[in-house]
Amino acid sequence: MSVYQELAARIGLADSKIAPRLFEMLTEEADAKLLLSLPGGAPELAQRLQLPEEEVEKRIQTLFLKGLVFPSRKTDPPTYRMCRDMVQFHDATILWKDAPREFLDLWQEFMETEWPIFARKISQIMEKPYTRVIPVDVSVQAKTSVLDFESVREIVNSARELAVTNCTCRLTARKCDRPLETCIQVNNAAAYALARGTGRKIDKDEALEILRKSEEEGLIHVTMNRHQVDHFICNCCPCCCQTMPILIKGGIHVVDPSRFRAEIDREVCSGCGTCHERCYFGAISWEDGEGSVSRVEAEKCMGCGLCQVTCPEEAITLREARPEAFVP
After folding, report:
1. pLDDT tens, position by position, 171-186
2. Residue 28's CB: how many other CB atoms inside 10 A?
3. Are 227 and 283 part of one and the same domain?
4. Which pTM was predicted?
């Protein structure tokens, strides 16, 4: 087994033919061996690899900029680890500032050919999907108050630090002309993006404006599937995204719905059909044929709220459909 195959195996891609090639494009063999020696601090890695500490530090910095090494400042000197899984490998390395087009195209080849198989395995093993949808920044009807972790506005307003990066999925796939600079990094993720030079610092007002424009563009807010939002708010399209196309076309559930579901007031609905065009999940149908009142097929609705944003009659409401415990 080559060092590049070993690296692929480390992040769960032992069966991948493409992941070792990605690692090979990113690293010399000496760098690959350093990665395989992690975790560790520069002094112990130098001793372990029989290299000068100065050289190890230089190599670590290069690997950090490429998105392969992550520092922990909880120790002095810092402890370094390599990317923990495929998702982190994908998101970090694609934003490498010097990434050649060949590298990005190879990533897209992986997403088109190997990712659906890998994602299906993940969906069968994991108790809950890695990510979840957050509703658009409009009013929702809840039995209790809307909680901070399911409101994009509250996530932004409570953040210590914010940055915005390019969408890694649209950067590689290039299947649509929706905006690129839309991925909002929160707190630790923002600090990481700014340290690497892959993100731009933004304030809360700009973050909310990016979210508003994303909603208008038909992008779905997605974050990590947990109560504490301390990493990212992605704004996903149905054609380039890691999770949406395989959910829409293949029924592979690697993203959870929000806790909410759209409801249409049949007394107010004019039958204009705008919501049909806005729903990527086929969750809206006609009650009595085209042009009649629209209705929501509850089991298909992801609770993203894109249909509500552009409803001219304001006939659509997002209502609480799942308990708070639905989010881990």
Report:
1. 999 999 999 999 999 9
2. 11
3. no
4. 0.92
